[in-house]
Amino acid sequence: MTARFTATEVDPEDVDLSAPLGSRTLPNPLSTASGCAGYGRELARFVPLDALGTVTTKTIMPYPRSGQATPRLAETPSGMLNAIGLQGAGIEHFVRHELPWLAERGARVLVSIAGERLEEFTETAERLNGQPGVVGLELNISCPNVADRGLVFARNPATSYDVVRAVRKITDAELPVYAKLSPDVTSITEIAAACVQAGADGLSMINTSLGLAVDLDTLRPALAGGTGGLSGPALRPIAVRCVYQVHAAMLAGRIPQVPILGMGGIRSGRDALEFTLAGASGVAVGTALFQDPAAPQRILAELRAELATRGFAKYTDAVGYAHRPSSPAGPPRRPSSTERPS
Questions:
Q1: Which of the residue ranges 38-52, 141-155, 184-198 would you say has the lowest mean pLDDT?
Q2: Active-site annotation holder among 36, 143, 195, 242
Q3: Is 242 a catalytic residue?
Q4: What percent of the chain has pLDDT over 90?
C-alpha cells in the first residue's frame, strides 16, 4: 500500500510560485492555453494580463485564414470538440495591432505559430524576433483541425525535428522555443526527443485529441468538418499520462531535461498540482475559460494553497515529485529545493 503523503504545512503566502520558461524565470507557472483566450482582449476584462505567468495567443499563421466551416463547436460529456481550423488575421495584423496592445498591459506573450509548410513557420517566427512583450514561441505542430492531416508535423519525429530545427536556427538565441505535441501518436516520447534534439527549449503538452460527435437530430456529424479536437476534463488523464511519460524519459536520460508546459482539462488548483507532480514546470488553462473567464487567478490561488498544505515552499520543488519512489519506512519527508528531480 502506498504511504499517504504528509508534511508540515507552510503559509500559502510564503509559497514561491516562480517557474521557468526556457532560461527565463516567470513570476508564476500559470498560462492561458492557445486558442482559448484569443489575443487576450476579452480575457483582460476579467484578469489582469500581467498577473499571469504568460499569455499564450491563438495560433498565428503568416497570412489571414478563414478556418473551417460552421458549426465548429460541439459539447461532449466532460469536454468539448472544436474545429476552428486556425482562423486568424495573420502575422502582420498581430504584430501591428495585437502585440502592441498586449505589451502596453505588461503581458508576457508566448506566441503560438503554425504553417502549412516549413518555410511558413520560419517566416512567421522571424517576424517575431525582437518584438516587445514576446517571451517565447510555441510551435503548433500538432493541430488536429486542418483539412490535410498530413500537415500535422507532430505525428512524425523527422518532420517534428525539421520544424523545430528550422525555427531555432532563425530565432534569437534568448527567445525560448516550445514545441506543442499531440497525444494522437504511437510514442509521444519519441516525438518529444526529436523536438528537444532539434533545439526546443521546452515542450507544450498536449494539444487536443481527435474526436467526433454525431448529431442525433440531423443524423450527421455535429461539426461541419466532421472531426474536431477534444478538450476539457475528459482529456486530463491522457494529458497527465503524456507529461508523466516524457518527464520519466528525461529522468532516465533518454531526453535532455527541458521544461514542460502541461495542459488539458485544468479547472482547479488540484488539477494544476496533478500536472506539476507528473512533471510539468508550468500549467495552462484552456477550456475552463469559456465557463469561467476569471479561472486563472482562482486556480493560481488554489494551487498556492494546495502546495502549502503539502509543505512545498517552492512550486519548483513539486515538479515531477510523483516520480520519486515511495519510502517503505513511511511517507516521504518534506522536499527541499535542492532535491527536486528537475
A1: 141-155
A2: 143
A3: no
A4: 79
